Amino acid sequence: MIEIGAALTEVVLQNGAVEESPFLTDYGAAAIAVGLAALASGYAERGIGAAAVGAVAEDRDMLIPGIILTVLPETLVIFALLIVILAL
Amino acid sequence: MLRPEQMSKISVTGSKGVMPTVIETIHELNLVHLSDYDGTWEGFENGNPMEGADNVSEKLVTVRALESTLDLSADDVAPGTLVDDWEARLERVRTRVNELDDERSEVREQLRQVEERLDRVGPFAELGIDLDLLSGYEHVDVLVGEGAPEEVDAVLDNAEEIGAYETFTGGDIVAIVASPAEGDEPAGIIDDALVGIEFNRYAVPDTEKSPQEYVSELEERKATLEDELDATDAELGEIKLEEGGFLLRIEEELRIEAQRADAPLQFATTRRAFIAEGWIPSGEYDELVTSLNDAVGDSVEIEELERAEYDRHGAPTHSAPVPAEEGGVVGDEEDTDETAAEEDGEKPKAATDGGTANRDDGAVTMDEDPPVVLDNLTPAKPFEMMVQMVSQPKYRELDPTLLVFLTFPAAFGFMIGDIGYGILYMAMGWACWKFFDSDAMSAIGSIAVWAGGFTVFFGYLFDDIFGVHMADLGLYLPLAGSLSKGIQTVEWVLLWAVVSVIFGLVHLNIGLIIGFINELDHGLKAAIFEKFSWILALNGLFIWIFSHQDAGTLGLGPDLTAAEYKPPFLVGSGEEAVLHSSDYFMDLGFAGFPELVGVIGLVAFLVGFVMVAVGEGIAGVAETPAWAFGHVLSYLRIVAVLLAKGVMAFVVNLLVFGAYEAPNGYMYFDIPGVGAETVAGTGDLSQQFVGLIHLGDGIALSALGIILGVIVFVVGHIVVLLLGITAAGIQMLRLEYVEFFQKFYEGGGEEYEPFGDDRTHTAD
Amino acid sequence: MSAGASNPEYVNARVRSRRAALFADEDYRKLVRMGPSGIARFMEETEYEREINQLGTRFSGVDLIEYALNQNLARHFEDLLDWSNGRVYDRIARYLRKFDVWNLKTIIRGIYTDTPAEEIETDLIRAGELEEATIDRLLEVDEIEDAIEVLGRTMYYEPLSEAYEVYEETGVLVPLENALDREFYEHLLDDLGRPSEGPDALYVEFLQAEIDFRNARNALRLARSGSGLDPAEYYIEGGVLFDESELSRLVTDYDELVDHIAESGRYGDRLSTALGRLRNAESLIQFEHALDAALLEYSDRLSSIYPVSVSAVLSYILAKEREVENIRAIARGREVGLDETEIEEELVIL
Q1: What residue ranges do the domains of chain B occupy?
Q2: Does the ipTM surpass 0.85?
Q3: pLDDT tens per residue, range B636-648
Q4: Which fold has domain B120-215?
Q5: According to a count of CB atoms within 10 Å of the terminal CB, is the N or C end of chain C lower?
Q6: Contact, B312 vs B318, CB < 8 A?
Q7: pLDDT by residue (tens digit) across C317-338?
C-alpha cells in the first residue's frame, strides 16, 4: 500500500511540472480516492463478514445484527464520496 | 412510555402439602416470573422435583424422539384427544416405529452395498468380457482399469519383467493379460509395470455371470430394495397421520406436567414448607391473590414484598410502600417452620404478626432486578425490537424506544427522499408484515412502512420520483420542491451538512440528558461529573464553533472566535454562509453567536473537560475528541447518504434518458413526451448526454437502445432501492447505536418469562 | 493439512456462540436434583436436542445420557474441523488428537481387562484424526501387541512399540498410556518454536500450561499408586514449570508442589482462587478437578487477550469436555443414589 502511495505521489508531483493536459485530472484523482476507500472498506468487511456468517450459522436471529456489523465500514466509502462531491 | 411496566416482587409461603396446587394455579395464570433461589439462606434448600417427575420426563423424551423420527410438526395433523391407556398406546407406537426404523436402516444398508457393487461392475460391462474369464489364472496376470491405451502399450512394451501381453479395450477401459518374463511369478507384474503412468485400477467382481446379466440382476435387486424402502416410509407416514395428533397432545400434557414438576427446583424449601418468589406486573397482583385464595383458601401466605421503583438501585430501604395491607413479611426460618408445623391448616398468624422484615441484609429476597416488560405506544412497539437487538433495557433505565421511533424513520426518509422509492419501501414492509409469521419479521415490516412513509413525505418536499423532479415532468404541486437534495446546487449540500450537525447536537444532547437521569440512581454527584460534564463540553465546544465576530465582537485585539479558520459556509455574514443569506432558500440571517457567547462556550467546554477528567479519569480525557467533536461530525453521514443515493438515481436516469444542460448549469432529462425545452422555458439548451432510449436512428438500433434502456432503468433503480436500505437504514441505525446509545444505554435487563405454558392442542 | 486460507473470524464466531450455549453453573444446581430421565429431558430442551431425539426411542435413563453425550461431543469437535481451514485447522486438528489418545487408551485398557468390544465402543469419542476404519479394526483385536501392529502407519506405532517392552516386564499399563500422552503433547509444539508475543505465543503458553499440569497430575498419580515407577521417567517435555529432577522431588510433598506452582511467575498470580482450592483438596480426585478448573480458567484468560485467535477454540474444547464430564458425573451419581453434596464434589465448577 505504502509503495503504491509513494508511486502515486511521484506521478502527481511529476504532473505538477507539466503544463499541458495533466495525466491525472481532478475527476481521475477523485475516482482513485473513492476506489481506495472502497478497497479499504472491502478489506474491513472481509473479516466482519466471515464472523457474521459464522454467527448466523449458529443462530438465525443474528442475521440482522450480522448485516449491520458487516456493512459498518461502508462509512469509509460514504465519507470518501462526500468529500469528493464537495471537492469537485 | 419511557419506563417499562411496573413489577412487584411477590412471595408465596406455605406447607409442602399445598405446593402442587399452588404450582398448578400459578402455572395456569402464566403471569409470575419465578426467581431462582440460589441456595444461600441458612436452613433452606432448593426443592426437589415433585414425585413422579422422572417418569414424566422419561415419557416426554420418548414422545419427542418419536416426533422427531416421524418428522412430525404441529401443522401436519389435527390435534388428538387424550386417552386413558395412553402409556400402553405410546409403548405400542414406540415399538412399531423402532421396528420400522430398524427395517429402514437395514434396507438402506443393503441398498448401499448393491449400489457400490453396481459402481464396481460398470466398467466391466463396458468391456464386454465375461467376468469369470478375468480371474483365476496360474501363469498369467490380469488387470483391468481405466487409462490411455497408447500409454499402457508403451509402458508394457518397455517393461522387463513382462514377457508377452495383450490388451482388450472398450471405451476408456483397458483389460491387460500378461505373462511374466521367464520363470517369474505372474502375480502383480502388470501392477508394477504401470507404476509410472496414470491408471485407475478396478477390482474384478466375484461372479460367474456375464457383466450384463450381473448388472441387470443387481438393478433388479436395487429396484426391489427401493420399493421396500418406499413401503417402509409409507408405513411410517401412516403412523404419523394416525398417531400424530395423539403424540402432540401427549407431548403438551407431559410438557406442562414436567414444567410443574420442576418448579420446586426454583423454590426455597425446608422439610415441610416452601417459599416461592417471583415478579408479577403490579397490576396483576390482585388476580394472583384471588386465584390462589380460590385454589387453596388461606393456607398459603401471599405477599407483595415490594413494588419495584424505577430510580432505586439495589438498596431495599428506598422501596415504595406496598399500598395493600402492610405487615406481611416473609417468615424467617422459625416462622416458616411454624407454618409447616401447622401443616396445611389455618393461616398461621405468627408469620404475619412477625412484623419486621428480615431483609435488612438483602439476603432473603432472591435476585434483585425485576424482569422487564417494555411498555410503549402502539405505533412505537415495533421499534422495541431495534432496542432489544442491542440488549434488553434494564428495569431502572429509561427505555429509548420512543426516541428511536421519533428519529429513525424520519432520518431514513430524509436520506432517501423519493416518492417512488418510498412507496416501494412501504409495499415491501407491508408484505413483510403480512406474510411472515415471526414477530421479528412483522416488526421489521412495520418499521419499513414507517420509513417508507417518511421517504414519501421528504420525496414530496424534494419533488423527486425515481430521481426525476416532478416539475421537470410538467407537474407542479404546492410545496413540492421546496427543498432540494443539492445534487445540482452545492449550497443545499452545505446547508444539509450544517443541519446534520445541528441534528446530531440535539440527538446527542437528548442522549446525555437520558444518561444524566439514569445516572441519578448513583447519586447527583456521579450524574453531574459523568454526564452533565459531557453536556457542558459538547455544547460549549459547538457554541464556540458556531460563534463569529460578525455577530458581535468584544472589541479585544485578537479574534477569540478564530473566525478566519472556520469554513465560510458555516458561520459569518459572508455570501457563502448558509445560515445567513442564500439565493436558494430562506434568509435565516444567522451569522453565528457573538464573540462573548463564543468565549463563554469555550469556558464551558474547558470546565466540562476538567469535570470529565475528574469523573472518568484518563479514559474520559482520551475520549474527549470523539465524544465532544467526532460523534457530532459523524452525523454528516446523513448528508453523505442523501447525496450518494440521489446521485446514483440521477446517474441511472442519465444513462437511460440522457440530458440537456441549461445555461445556468441545470440538467434537464430528455424524457420522451416531455419537451425539455418547454419545461426549462428556454430553447438555449445544449445536449450533454445521449440516453440509451434515444440511441439510434435505425429501427434495430433504436429497439436495442430502448430494450437496454428499460433494463438499465429497472435494474438500476432496484439496486438504488436495495442499497438505500443498507446505506440509509444501517447508517442511521449506527448513529442510534454507536453515537446515541453510547451516551446512556447499559442494557442487560432480564426478559419477562412467566411460569406457564401457551397451550395449543387443548381445547379445555 | 487443509487447503484454503485460515479463517479464524468465522471459526471464532461459531465457537463463541456454542460456548455461550454451554450450561451455566445454575443449571448444574438444578441437574443434581433431577433423576436421570429428568436430566435427559433437560438436555433435550437444550443443546443436546438432536442426539437425545435420535436415541430417545431406543434408550432411556443413564444409557441415553451417556450415548448422547459422546455423540454430541464428537459432533461438535468434528464440526470444528469442518469449519476451519488453513492454519486454524492445523492447530485445532493437532489438539483434537487428544481424543485419539483417549480412544487408544480406552481400547488398550479394554483389551487388558477383556472388556467386550461393544462396551469399549460406547466409551470412544470419535473426534480425532485416526480413521474410523482403523478404530474399528482396533476394536476387533484381542492382544495389545496386535493393536500396536494395527497402528503401524500412525505416529503412535514407534513409541507404543518401545513402551510395550516395558509393559511386558512390569505388567502395568502406565508405560503405554504415558507413551501416548508424550507423543501427543510433544507433537503439539511441533514447529511452533518459542514465539514471544502475539497470538502464537499465547497458543504455546496454553499448551505449556497443559503439559505442566499433566506432569503434575501424572507425577502425583504415580507417587500415590505405589507402583515404584520413577516419576521422572514419565516426564513430558515442553512444559516450563518443572524439570525432571524437580518433579521427582516435589511429588513426595504435596504442599511443596502447590507452593511451587504458586511461586512460579506464570501461574501464581493468575490462578489464586484455583490454587486456594488446590491447597484444600483432600483427595487425588479433588486435586485433579481443581487442576482442570485451573486450566480452564487459564485458557479463558488467554482467549480474552487475543479475541480472534485459536485460543478461544481451545478454551471452548476444554469447556465442552468439562460440561460433558460434569453431566456424566451427575447422571452416574444420581443412578447410584449419591446425594446432592456428594455429586457436587464430583463436578468441576469454576
Answers
A1: 7-47+267-361, 60-112+223-260, 120-215, 644-741
A2: no
A3: 989 989 988 998 9
A4: Alpha-Beta Plaits (3.30.70)
A5: N
A6: yes
A7: 999 999 999 999 999 998 888 8
